[in-house]
Amino acid sequence: MTDAALPTTPSRPSPARPPRLRLQIHDAPGRIDAAAWDALLAASPAPTPFLRHAFLAALHASGSACAATGWQPVFMTLADENAAGVLRAGAALYLKSHSYGEYVFDWAWADAWERAGQRYYPKLLGAVPFTPVPGSRLLARDAEARAALLAAIEAFARDQGLSSAHLLFLDEADRAAATAQGWLLREGVQFHWTNRQPEPYADFADFLAHLSRDKRKKIQQERRYVREAGIAFDVRRGAEIAEADWDFFARCYDNTYREHRSTPYLSRAFWAEMARTLPEHWLMFVARRGTERVAASLIAIDPERRVAWGRYWGCTEPVAHLHFAACYHAPLDWCVRERFLRFEGGAQGEHKMARGLLPVTTTSAHWLRHPGFADAVARFLAQESAGVEAYVGELRERNPFRS
């Protein structure tokens, strides 16, 4: 951990900074007080379980996201010197030696910059590793602290001679702060399900009844096919998920990566930490044929805010339509029963619309040190943004719900 003064001559005009704030840079999340970090997260506009101290510490301690895997932590905190232990702002930041596990793709930027004879990596990244979930990234108790934190991030990137800094899947407060400080904004598309308001769906059949006939029929056929294959689901929540369930899920998760000739991002040690430290945020669907388990999906949940996130899946044998049943139909059925407000389906995938999820835009923010490079990326983003807007408009015309 290192202490540093906030920059007194930022590259762009920014709000005045409270003189009592002390900037610290931490080389591991475990060096930050867990209660102080989680209190800061709770005070932020859009907290998610993925920025809980236990989640971030498990990523690092398990070897899933650490310097050896290309994720070198440089977490930042701003503390009030007059209130010991109270954080005013903080950000989970990493020096990245590649762009894997981010879901906002800048490979073309890296290629162009390195073709120009420059060094793109390491870059500075503010994100939750391997987790494309929108939420607060600049954890802050107020707008003033948020602006000070963003200025400190930019100053650090500049002082270290880094090519760029990036903040992924921002909430509205972060977006406003980034816009005010001149960062470039980039839009993406995800697919989310929202419960009907003010009267939630009575049951899954009620949800299906609101879909267009062809979409409703498609889901019914997929569920019937899985059922006729002899597949049923066991649902485990929180502490109900036994170690044997975690073992089976980890096997399925690893299989998914092996089938794509890739290496799993998350280790078995990480899942063990989730079972130990954050059991209340997990929901598991285990598919079985008789007594034989054949697949599992793992859903993250926030019981207080009634939000669920489709996150991980895997199987031990292929069964037609089982992926849709385990990752969408069964979780949505559960969300309807539990009166959850939203289910986020993760990155990409137009096929999710046929299961009742609708397109939403996501935002990332980018700072590039070289003015010429920044101008070129800004022109690219203007064109890309117009394309994203047209794409979302086209998708919304294909609304799966009955008019």
UniProtKB/TrEMBL annotation:
InterPro entries reported for this sequence: Acyl_CoA_acyltransferase, FemAB-like
Entry superkingdom: Bacteria
Signal peptide location: none
Protein's name in the database: GNAT family N-acetyltransferase
